[in-house]
Amino acid sequence: VDERASCREGVFDRTGEEDGWADLVVVAQAWHWCPDFDKALAEFSRVLKPGGVVALIWNLEDIDVAWVAANRKAYEAHEQGTPQFRLGLWRKMYQVPAIRFFSRQEEREVTWTLPTTVDRVVERVFTKSYVAVLDQDEKDRLRNTIKANTEKGEGLVWIDREQGTFEYPHKNLVVILKKD
């Protein structure tokens, strides 16, 4: 473990850290849940050193592949109004006053694949909070749909068919905000 890196407990707008303490603030898979982008960006600016960076990271299954798109359509139907990344509500951060503290704003997309199996795809879907709270009948229907979509395999790339492993395509969006 690199002693220069640490994880700290805090919330978006109250980190509990001193002024100019951090070189980097990383928010992974969570920025779209931020209730007040202006307060959060002001807090990040406060704790960052000059030239410090905020890195916002999201990891999504790649809907450019048919079986993945079918699965996402099936489980995203259960979101029930939660502020999911894909809705783009997080982009409102570019309109808040505190964005002025960050002179450079850059977005990059990274594509990659993960070796997986049908069972692991199902497990991944069931890590989502809005899926976890479904009643058992609905969970069973969703599980069957995800298995069927994946086994149909439209666009699926096999790694080892005999072992049942194939590529799980993903896209990461990385947003970099550099403090003046």
Give a verbal description of the structure.
Pfam families: Methyltransf_11. It comes from Tulasnella calospora MUT 4182. InterPro entries: Diverse_substrate_MTase, Methyltransf_11, SAM-dependent_MTases_sf. This is Methyltransferase type 11 domain-containing protein. With 180 residues, this protein is α+β, with helices and mostly antiparallel strands. The protein has a single domain, classed as Rossmann fold, CATH 3.40.50. Helix content is 28%, strand content 30%. The chain contains 5 helices and 5 strands, in the order βαβαβαααββ. A hairpin with a 4-residue loop joins β4 and β5. α2 runs antiparallel to α5 and α3 crosses α5. The longest helix has 17 residues.
List keywords for this structure.
180 residues, alpha+beta, Rossmann fold, 5-stranded mixed β-sheet
Number of strands: 5
How far is the N terminus from the C terminus?
29 Å
CATH architecture annotation name: 3-Layer(aba) Sandwich
| CATH level 1 name | Alpha Beta
User: How many domain regions?
Assistant: 1
CATH level 3 topology? Rossmann fold
> Helical content, roughly?
25-40%
Strand content: 25-35%
Largest sheet: 5 strands, mixed
By secondary-structure content and strand pairing, the structural class works out as alpha+beta
H/E series = EHEHEHHHEE
Please mark out the parts with pLDDT under 50 across 5 or more consecutive residues, or reply none. none
Q: Please state the overall shape, judged from the principal axes of the Cα atoms.
A: elongated
Total helices: the number is 5
CATH superfamily: Vaccinia Virus protein VP39
Spatial extent as radius of gyration: 19 Å
GO molecular function, one term: S-adenosylmethionine-dependent methyltransferase activity
Pfam families: Methyltransf_11
Protein name: Methyltransferase type 11 domain-containing protein
Domain Methyltransferase type: 8-55
